């Protein structure tokens, strides 16, 4: 008689193979039993760093199918009914037992701890297991839960953090170029108001990058040029190395340098951004489009080229009116380890008509703070960094080219750090909150409070 192996046996073995792969990806050891006695194998906990095995085990029963486990993409639960004899067998003994329900068609697997799940008498009587799509997925993210399940309550087991490297992206954009020379001259007038009234009287147009302080004019422009003779004594002009201000021990000198950097930043972005200065907090934001249509920009995110809507309209609830949302940022220059950075804190500006600030701005902003996750806020930081660097894109080629050619202030890359310890977000993030993993989120979402760092993980 010809020997045969049924389709169910093939499916069952595919299921065991999938479980073995997931277990090995965790760094644990898989021991198949090769016996049809209600347990298909067991997991032995292993320390991935020290490579030591612990003799702490979890028994595993696999239930594999070729059918889809969930009726649709919107379904969050699926059910499996346990055999009565199997359930009684699993509940005996002192070793933990897990049931893994999986489909080999999509390689999805879900699990529960048998003895914990069926402590409830009604569940035990019913014998049905309800698996949750988001909470019960059997993959590398449940490693810590398996460790806790395997160890006895009296057992102190330490497993080293997973051997992964993470790149942490900060919101600090490096300043890579500023003018080498700083010009200082005595002011013709003793106060700033008189200086400005003189400029208005003669309709003099001066560059923006200058300041009045201590009866002196300071600028990155050459104050010996004729256009400056209405407000400063040209014969008194001195030239200094800008680093004497940028890295001075004197805090007042560094403040003057920052003042000038802010003047440069305003000049750099003036073709695209407006500045809110009526009251704190002050910030830049994208100017409205002439016809109030949506403005979308393309930029290079950490992993791909993507887009973001930086100006768009929203319908007001229960009315026929609209309001407008402008992407913005608060910027502060910081000196860290002898390098200057622009700290970028994303925010939003809300207007009634693209110009007049909405009196409901605070409500719009506070009402959406909890909707945007770290990935989205990091995406905004990366977008602003890309914009301020002046990298060319198809939609912003003209204005971005101007940004990149502005010689007084240029930016490099965001500060980032590499650490040797991985952080599993699923272990601390609330399980009932879904956060976006893309740079752009749903337009009905908005920003969360900015964490200093975003993460990119590289496994060894």
End-to-end Cα distance, whole Å, is 51 Å
How many domains? The number is 3
Query: Into which percentage range does the β-strand content fall?
Result: 25-35%
Instruction: Give the number of DSSP strands.
Output: 20
Shape field = elongated
Give the biggest sheet.
9 strands, antiparallel
Low-confidence runs of at least 5 consecutive residues: 393-402, 431-460
Helix content: 10-25%
What would the average pLDDT be, to the nearest integer? 82
The secondary structure category is alpha+beta
Rg calculated over all Cα atoms: 31 Å
Number of helices: 11
In a few lines, what is going on in this structure?
With 460 residues, the protein is α+β, with helices and mostly antiparallel strands. It has helices at 7-26, 84-91, 114-117, 121-126, 143-150, 192-201, 243-246, 251-269, 361-367, 374-389, 397-405, and strands at 29-32, 41-46, 53-65, 77-81, 97-103, 108-113, 128-132, 164-177, 181-186, 210-213, 216-219, 238-241, 273-276, 283-286, 295-300, 305-315, 322-336, 339-351, 410-419, 454-459.
Task: Characterise this structure.
- The protein is α+β, with helices and mostly antiparallel strands.
- It has three domains: 7-160, 3-Layer(aba) Sandwich (Trna Endonuclease, Chain: A, domain 1); 172-179 and 260-459, no CATH class; 181-241.
- Helix content is 24%, strand content 32%.
- It is built from eleven helices and 20 strands.
- The protein has helices spanning 7-26, 84-91, 114-117, 121-126, 143-150, 192-201, 243-246, 251-269, 361-367, 374-389, 397-405, and strands at 29-32, 41-46, 53-65, 77-81, 97-103, 108-113, 128-132, 164-177, 181-186, 210-213, 216-219, 238-241, 273-276, 283-286, 295-300, 305-315, 322-336, 339-351, 410-419, 454-459.
- Strands 8, 13, 14, 15, 16, 17, 18, 19 and 20 form a nine-stranded antiparallel beta sheet that branches. The chain has a five-stranded mixed beta sheet with strand order 1-2-3-5-6.
- Strand 13 (273-276) and strand 14 (283-286) form a beta hairpin.
- It is elongated.
């Amino acid at each position: 008689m010809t020997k045969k192996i049924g389709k169910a046996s093939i499916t069952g073995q595919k299921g065991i193979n999938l479980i073995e792969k997931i277990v090995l990806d965790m760094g644990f050891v898989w021991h198949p039993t090769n016996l049809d006695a209600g347990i298909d194998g067991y997991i032995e906990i292993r320390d991935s760093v020290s490579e030591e095995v612990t003799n702490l085990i979890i028994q595993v029963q696999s239930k594999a199918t070729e059918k889809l486990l969930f009726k649709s993409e919107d379904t969050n639960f699926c059910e499996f009914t346990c055999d009565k004899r199997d359930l009684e067998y699993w509940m005996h003994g002192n070793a933990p037992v897990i049931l893994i329900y999986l489909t080999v068609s999509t390689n999805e697997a879900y699990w529960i701890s048998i003895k914990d799940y069926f402590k409830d008498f009604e569940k035990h009587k019913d014998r049905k297991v309800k698996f949750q799509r988001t909470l019960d997925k059997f993959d590398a993210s449940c490693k810590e839960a398996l460790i806790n399940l395997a160890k006895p309550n009296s057992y102190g087991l330490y497993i080293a953090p997973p051997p992964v490297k993470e790149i942490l992206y900060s919101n600090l954009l490096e300043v890579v170029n500023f003018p080498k020379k700083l010009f200082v001259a005595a002011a013709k007038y003793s106060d700033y108001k008189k200086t400005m009234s003189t400029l208005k009287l003669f309709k003099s147009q001066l560059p923006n990058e200058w300041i009045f302080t201590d009866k002196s004019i300071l600028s990155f422009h050459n104050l010996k040029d004729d256009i400056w003779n209405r407000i400063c004594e040209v014969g008194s002009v001195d030239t200094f190395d800008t680093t004497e201000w940028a890295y001075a021990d004197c805090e007042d000198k560094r403040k003057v340098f920052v003042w000038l950097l802010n003047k440069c930043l305003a000049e750099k972005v003036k073709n695209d951004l407006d500045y809110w200065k009526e009251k704190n907090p002050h910030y830049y934001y994208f100017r409205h489009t002439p016809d109030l249509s949506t403005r979308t920009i393309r930029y290079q995110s950490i992993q791909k080229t993507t887009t973001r809507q930086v100006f768009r309209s929203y319908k007001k609830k229960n009315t026929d009116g609209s309001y407008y949302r402008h992407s913005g940022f608060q910027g502060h220059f910081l000196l860290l380890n002898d390098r200057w950075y622009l700290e970028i804190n994303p925010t939003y500006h809300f207007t009634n008509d693209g110009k007049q600030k909405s009196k409901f701005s605070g409500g719009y902003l506070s009402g959406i703070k909890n909707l945007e996750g770290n990935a989205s806020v990091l995406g905004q930081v990366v977008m602003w960094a890309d914009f301020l660097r002046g990298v060319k894109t198809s939609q912003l080629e003209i204005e971005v080219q101007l940004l990149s050619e502005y010689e007084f202030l240029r930016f490099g890359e965001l500060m980032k750090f590499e650490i040797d310890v991985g952080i599993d977000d699923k272990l601390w993030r609330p399980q009932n909150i879904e956060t976006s993993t893309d740079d752009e989120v749903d337009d009905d979402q908005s920003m969360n409070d900015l964490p200093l760092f975003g993460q990119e993980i590289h496994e060894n």
